[in-house]
Amino acid sequence: MRRSILTITALLVFVVIVGTAITHNLAFTAPYRPGDALFGVQEVSEQLWGLGFNGDSMDRAQVQLGLMAHRMDDLTAVQGTPNEAAAVSALTRAHKRAVTAIAEAPTSEQSALQTRLDRISLQALDQLTSLSDAGSPTILALRDQIESSMSAMEVAVAATAVPSPQPTATAAATETAVFQGNQLDDPRLIPFPPEADILEAHSFFALTGGHANLLCSNCHSGETYQGTPANCAACHTDKDAHQGTYGTDCAACHTIDDWQNAAFDHSLIGAQDCADCHTAPENHYPGACRACHTDTTDFNVVFFDHAVVSGQDCAVCHAAPANHYPGACVNCHQDTGNFRNINFSHAGLTDCAACHIAPANHFPGQCSACHNTTTFAGATFNHTFPIYHGNANGDCTTCHPGNDTRTYTCYSCHNQQEMISEHSEEGIGDLSNCVRCHANGEEHDGEDGNGDEHEDGGEEHEDDD
Fold it and tell me: Taking the model in full, what pTM does it have?
């Protein structure tokens, strides 16, 4: 029993593999015509392999349109044979599938697909007219089916280009359309073979993108088609924004699918400057663009050679920060690769406060008394009054409350009333500047800090001690 199951399984796998290979070959080589014994299998295989694994609705519509054109080839091949009726039935099915597929395609793509269907339909109508049984109910029904699916313009074209067959066939009914003067908007007037796909026959100038819905007369203005110029300039000279500067080969930059999305080859500009096409920003450097912008794919990649400015000062292009030193930039900024590398010469400058603002509660004296121009942080301060006087112990706030060095007081340690009383006995009433007499903080008898005796009104004062 087990052996039988394995045998059956192997046989099924073999059949599936062989069947897959056969259907795939039938779908893509299509060796059979309508009426042949295996044509039905071939038709199913075409749907399976062309559409069964294809979820792209646009691609599915293109496949169905291709199969409709193929069924027209089949009809031509079997025309006048007993298989002609089978070919008409196959074309009927193919047309219905194409119409359905176009309806399921994206709305934005349906116009182009309908245009292709219209062109194939015009060929089909012409082909049906040439059949020996063109007036039969089956063929007339197919004609109605095809015409009902065509756009209004193409139906009007079909009415003038392809006469409807009468129930009784005549010799005139089998005649194909011929060129008649200036009826250029009828693609059937072009002497292409009846079985030809006009898109294929016109492949030397693709009718896609912006050219997909053109009338023939848009390009063919005379009574002949051969020799019509195929270059863009033949039709678009009046719209050339470049006025012929870059020649007539528009396709070097533009595509018919998106004219505005151009890929420009800057090697074509030769000696022209960028400013011939590009407008520089406001207050931009007035020199040649290519002196800085060397990357034509990204204008933001800039390399500026400051050697080209010669004797120009930096301020011609660069705005100095607020409250900046008013001298020439090159006096300090010599490194054009990095503006932050600064070398300033303070030679001859004495008033530091003209450029530098002192910190809050800073010593009010001249900056140069403590600072040098090599390093402003390395200050040397000469404090003539002993900072360890009395109980100060080097604490600035003892004499400078609030750390305000612009003023000082002695009354943090000395009693003000006692000082007033003692100095009044000496005839000294001004106690606003103690260090005038006590420059080293020491007490003395009748002498000020300069060794001179106190005087008040020209009289000497003796110490009470």
Answer: 0.35
